[in-house]
Amino acid sequence: MKKTQPERGRPRAFDRDVALRRAMEVFWAQGYEGASVGDLTAAMGIERPSLYGAFGCKEALFREAVELYGREESGATGRALAREPTARAAVAAMLRDNAAVYVEPGKPPGCLVVLAALVGTPESAPVRQALAERRARVRAAIAARVRQGMAEGDVSRDADPDAIAAFYGTVLHGLSLQARDGMAKEDLLAICEAAMAAWDPLAAPS
Amino acid sequence: MKKTQPERGRPRAFDRDVALRRAMEVFWAQGYEGASVGDLTAAMGIERPSLYGAFGCKEALFREAVELYGREESGATGRALAREPTARAAVAAMLRDNAAVYVEPGKPPGCLVVLAALVGTPESAPVRQALAERRARVRAAIAARVRQGMAEGDVSRDADPDAIAAFYGTVLHGLSLQARDGMAKEDLLAICEAAMAAWDPLAAPS
DNA sequence: GGAGAAACATACCGATTGGTACATAAAGGA
DNA sequence: TCCTTTATGTACCAATCGGTATGTTTCTCC
To answer: What was the pLDDT predicted at A1?
Structure first.
């Protein structure tokens, strides 16, 4: 998978993966526009030209950081939706596990995809759109899981999977705001529980 | 109320209130750090020194803009919480009316208090905190309305007003994200309806 | 042991950031 | 009429923004 063929010139003096992870943490904490190239190089332990040589430009670095985040830090959603036996358990686990992840010590609270580029200058619109598409994919995944539940009989045939997904996606995204505002884990979990109180009226089979 | 005593020097050549409103719209659309002083003066129709003379600095202008927003653009929440006869109707109206306001044509979608300063450089931390406090006040107002419902008998005595407020506050804030992502009004309203499906399990008197 | 290729650090680029000095203009008070 | 006060437009400030040119170092290939 990782092709590290013997390279020609001078070998890179830093670990690209580690540097990318440091960059991700800066973007995660300060957002795309709030993270200056100086902030990034300082956290990555490299000089400017090394950053541009290895990643191209700030936006490309950010996109790689978002992919790394999706790969390593946001697995809870997909895991919950895939592994739980019913749609209800899947959504409940998705909320609960994300709430826990959003306040892990040593990491910026909340989700990078939600927080890193919500508003800003017109120049960064492509970056904002890229994150918006990732958020839309989460909503689509929830809707798909609800549809699966309808097919398997644990969700009412009269349920509206898109509306249910929009609601639980909204709660999920809202959790990132609360986490960034400093809310404690138990309060986030109480929000998840409260949101699940809507499940039966919305989706329970008759 | 408006003290316009005859002033001494040269009179201001622009309408301060109108200029502040234009600044508010820029902050609302682009956020605090995403709005440059050049963007602001262009929208306000004035030159830099006039801005600094009338408002002090960028941060002071932002704080005035936030107050103007609270006074003129975010009345739906307080109105709904104050006027509706039951806690349930109050929360439902709060969500519904805000959802409608969040997608009003000609205005930036979503709430300035939620969107304008979520992440950024360490220098703007005071601004972010000011908005976080405003968000906390909304949650406190919801909790107070639920407590009022408990006192008046339309909310169960076993209900947890802080948990209920945290949940509906999360949904309210999440609506701003969805609105900024371009969600249509009817879909936002469907989210509000879904959220209200949790009311009876959470708060209905036994 | 070159020769070529790639990464390194320093030092720089023009553009933009928030914020001002300064001279001028327009008002009220004496 | 003159003086004080305040606002205005131009032109500017140092600092920072994202991004590079350049000369040197360190590697592989022949």
So the answer is: 39
Judge contact between B40 and B23, C-beta under 8 A: yes
Q: Is the CB of B106 under 7 A from strand D?
A: no
Nearest nt to B13, CA vs C1'?
D7
Note the CATH architecture for domain A74-203.
Answer: Orthogonal Bundle (1.10)
Which candidate in A36, A118, A200 is best for mutational testing of the B interface (most B CBs within 10 A)?
A: A118
Segments in chain B below pLDDT 50:
1-4
Q: B75-203: which CATH architecture?
A: Orthogonal Bundle (1.10)
Q: Do B121 and A187 touch (CB under 8 A)?
A: no
| Distance separating alpha carbons of residues A139 and A154, to the nearest angstrom | 19
**What token pair was written down for A139?**
């909503």
With CB atoms and an 8 Å threshold, state whether A191 touches B170.
Answer: yes
State residue B7's pLDDT score. Answer: 77
pLDDT on residue A4: 47
Looking at domain B16-70, what is its CATH homologous superfamily? Homeodomain-like (1.10.10.60)
Q: Where are the alpha helices (DSSP H) in B31-57?
A: 37-44, 48-55
Contacts of B195 in chain A (CB under 8 A): 167, 195, 198
Residues of chain A with pLDDT under 70: 1-6
Q: How far apart (Å, rounded) are the C-alpha atoms in residues B62 and B81?
A: 27
Token code pair at residue A26:
């800066």
